[in-house]
Amino acid sequence: MLFPDVTCTVSESLKKNREYGLYDVLELDGMIVITLFRQNHKIQVNGIIENRKIDQNKIFRFIECCWDRIFAGEKFSNFFWEGCYYHMTSKKQAKPFLAFTLVIREGSPFPEKDLLWLDVYEKLNYQRTLIENEAFQNKNLYDNLFEGVPFAIAALNLSGKVLRMNPSASRLFGVCQDHAFVLARPEQNKILQAMIHQAILTNDRQTNQEFVFGQDDDIRVLSLSVSPLQNSKNQTAGVIVLASDKTEKRLLTAEVEQLKQYGFLGEFSMGLAHDIKNPLMIINGCAKKIPQNNQQGEHLRNIISFQVERINEVISELMTLGSSMRDPAEAMVDLNVVLQNCHTMATRQRTGPQAAIRMDLAPDLPQFYAKEVHLRQIFSNLLVNAMDAVGDDGNILMKSRSDENQIQVVISDDGCGIPRELQKKIFIPYFTTKRNGTGMGLFIVKRILEQYGGSISIESEPGKGTACRVSLPITHKGPECAKSQE
Predict the structure, then answer these.
(1) Gap between the Cα atoms of 362 and 400, Å rounded
(2) Strands, DSSP E only, in 355-437?
């Protein structure tokens, strides 16, 4: 057995013997199971059963009378004492103890063949009891593992009917036991059924590490495997479907990678600003030394000073951007400033002709607690998507407004729009229509907004443009701030 089973009681074994008809076949008047402890010379009666109302005191008197002989290891076979015949069969022997069964019959001795049969029965019965107890323990162990694991497990027969599934599988797939294992969405079910068919056909495990599953409002990324389930004759009798949810892990990985990119951009901005600022000061100093006694020199000096001032403004913006990205702590944030910085960053990353970006920002927008880098992630993603949609000659509007409860930001464009059949899929992880897209941008946007109690909605009409509407609660104190107040 895996571990000692304290629930394995002798009384249950004795009752089973009666159910099997053992006492009547051997014409027994009583049976008693005894454990003898050698170290302290104690005897423990584990169970006793009477078949014909034999006097129990007589049995106990026999044990007391033969105490020394029992401890000396004497075997009692058809031993006659006070009108009864006693026969001892060993059940289990170990150094500290000896367990044995004592059967009693009044009046007549046991036939030799019955004693031989009884000895064999006791040995087999003991082995059967051990096997049953071990099977029960194994079943209990596997049931607890099966029910308690955090991933989904389902066993199916060859026709696809669910033989057994754990609670995780029932919650994830929405399928009930004894029903066909069919997923709600045809395209997802087609992939799963193909894996099941291939596992049965090849008798080999099939895997899909990026199985996108769920409805539009609850998309999950699963690691899915289908393995053949074999019977005792090594024949494939069904399959085991195993699925673990990797959505959170994948999302965290994507967020970390994007934050690393922002962090690198911040470091790069600070370094670039520092490298440019020193030679720029020299240029400005030299410009001031250009003689002012002629009109051309004065004109050149004014041009140089004006352009140096413009570069200084760019450097200041880069240093502000780099500083905010290096310190991701929560603070009071002015969303208008964030939107302006996103506009600056997006336009400076592109060369050549660009879309016209107009900003309509409410002057009295209230501040709130947030990580600025999170807000940059949200609105940079949306702005870059809009710029990709309109190309070089389109128009983009960034607008902010607020009421008593929330701030709203709308980023709209007059680009190509999103086809109606794709609009429900844009928040699905890894779904993208861009050649080099990751399919994680809008998924991350939605995830961050949910952390702040916000939301996003997208309205799009093919050929006319798209509007992304972001709502953020003004009363939100931010994830870290909320934790510190608990």
Answers:
(1) 6
(2) 356-361, 368-371, 395-402, 406-413
Which single residue is written with the structure tokens 């440019």? 276
Strand partners of residue 238: 157, 229
Residues 6+ apart with CB under 8 A from 131: none
pTM metric for this prediction: 0.45
Q: Please tell me what DSSP assigns to residue 454.
A: -
| Separation in Å, CA 193 to CA 45, 63, 163, 378 | 60, 69, 16, 38
Complete DSSP assignment for 135-201:
HHHHHHHHHHHHHH-SSEEEEEETTSBEEEE-HHHHHHH---TTSB---SSHHHHHHHHHHHHHHHH
Check: CB of residue 467 under 8 Å from CB of residue 461: no
The owner of tokens 């002012």 is 292
Question: In 10 A of CB 206, how many CB atoms?
Answer: 20
Tell me the pLDDT tens digit for each residue of 322-357: 554 454 567 888 999 999 988 887 776 655 567 889
